[in-house]
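The freezer alarm interrupted the setup, so I double-checked each line after restarting. Inputs confirmed:
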Amino acid sequence: MANEQDKILDEVTGSEYKYGFVTEIETETIPKGLNEDVVRIISEKKGEPEWMLEFRLKAFRHWQTMEMPDWAHLNIPIIDYQGIIYYAAPKQKPSLNSLDEVDPILKETFDKLGIPLEEQKMLTGVAVDAVMDSTSVKTTFRETLAEQGIIFCSMSEAIREHPDLIKKYLASVVPVTDNFFTALNSAVFSDGSFCYIPKGVRCPMELSTYFRINASNTGQFERTLIVADDESYVSYLEGCTAPMRDENQLHAAVVEIVVHDNAEVKYSTVQNWYPGDKDGKGGIYNFVTKRGICKGKNSKISWTQVETGSAITWKYPSCILLGDNSYGEFYSVAVTNNHQQADTGSKMIHIGKNSRSRIVSKGISAGVSNNSYRGLVKVLKGADNARNFSQCDSLLLGDKCGAHTFPYLEVDNPSAIVEHEATTSKIGEDQIFYCNQRGLSTEDAVGLIINGYAKEVLNKLPMEFAVEAQKLLQISLEGSVG
Amino acid sequence: MLVIKDLHAKINDKEILKGINLEVKPGEVHAIMGPNGSGKSTLASVLTGRELVEVTHGSVTFNGKNVLEMPAEIRSREGIFLSFQYPVEIPGVSMVNFMKAAVNEHRKYRNLEPLSASDFLKLLRERKELVEIDSALTNRSVNEGFSGGEKKKNEIFQMAMLEPKLSILDETDSGLDIDALRVVANGVNKLKTAENATIVITHYQRLLDYIVPDFVHILYNGRIVKSAGKELALELEEKGYDWIKNGN
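Predicted 3D structure, all chains:
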């Protein structure tokens, strides 16, 4: 019986990342390696002011004194930081005339994910027709946002156009010296996004919509900063369900969120970077630092992530709950298959009175992958009546993969209530057979079962993405069955 | 409809079925009775394609098609339904979505368009009333937190949704109180037509008071050792399985 079960699971999970693709691009690059001159060149090429160069140099100097962290439950190959090219300005050019020329298998994936036709064209580099030209769409979005006083632009542009805001908020949540990767990112970040929502404004659209059309600008060292002023609200989506392949193996992004009184930021991520092949060769290393601060009273940060890609994921979206009555939440689904490794979770730092937090983490491991949850809940002395609830579930497909849970609790206030629940379960042959007996193929059965398992998290995603993310989960675990 | 010829099957190298012969025609109800370990549930597993059982000899055809070569989901779409002895829980998957996926797979197999949301909900309501199942059950996750009785009723509800040609009820009476038993049996009887057939697998004669069989077969040690009309069940009830074991 055990053998049969393994066979089914092997078939379902033994698939390769069939959908990666590379677009021919012309790039303007500088030589490999990292030193002060390279940092200067990057800053100069981006036309940055002196203070920004100083910011980068300070970060670089500090980075040189640091070592790569090794505490995560990850087996990270030695990374040659002098073998990496730190600046490449891509100039993408359409190489296809219509979607008919796109690899039919890739096209099928897009259709399975339900990605609209126009977006498929953007993603595959097909020339976009005049009727729905992307530039005009972007312009329309920008106008709508500008009417409300919302700033949403690239980080480079923000450094030039909004230096006061950048000086005030950049590295205010994640200090340059926070860790090895934030120091590196601060020294060499290529670009990213800046978003400012003024007082009392509810952002009228999911910033995902905008971002998706802009999806091609995800860089190697991305820098994102979101500031929500008093009584404002924004929902922001990063990433894309569409498969993303990148020549750069190392990714080290930094995301910072600042939320003032009575404001709320909802940040959703769908990450589907190339995970490497079946034997674990290639694949993106994704070392991300994401942190938000609930600065004001009654402020709220909500992180939702669906992580299916990357060879190695090292990521702990966190909330510093400084304001009284502030609330932080973290909802995560992390899938690892084949040789993928993920060490991910959240940190909730309770400082304000009556601050509350909730962590719901759902790990799914298949193949010979390793999937770890690592979470810290810290309640400081002054955080009277702080509340936390954490739930960490692991689902195993097969018996060669691993699921691990590392919860850390540090409570310094006697009135705090901290709860932690954890479960580990296996997709059973009997569940799959039950579905088969009702007429569902094994592939559909596995899809149904994992989506049921991850439902609580998927429900947190913006509507349009929840549907795609469901399909993505299934595709990530899809095999030769059917 | 169903023709089983000299069927031998083993689980983990242990031979469980040792030459089963059985023919089921449309409109018929067959009861298969037998003591624990006689091979009743193994027979249900072979017919529905559970992979842990290995067929070593013999044939099974369903409406002329070789069943043993079909994957489990195709057997289902061909019209073979199993009411499970132990229905499994699938957390987070709502009954409505589960049934919608199943019904539409069956329709696709017959080259029919998927049902629209409103047509599906209409069908759902209609079938729920037919088998007298509590409305709230279909809003919950598949079997999650269901009582024993609710799980069995839910099996019959799914049977009503999928309208199989051959239904195999594996120990559907186990763990049911008398009221739930009546509801389940009424559901089965209402779904009975001249075109479909039912195989009732049970230990006890009790269920057969409600679902009256045309034929009763006694399975013992991997073989059908006795077949007769419904009176056989009563005789068995009276004399006990020792009667069979002693070689009568």
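Quick read of the result. The radius of gyration of chain A is 22 Å.
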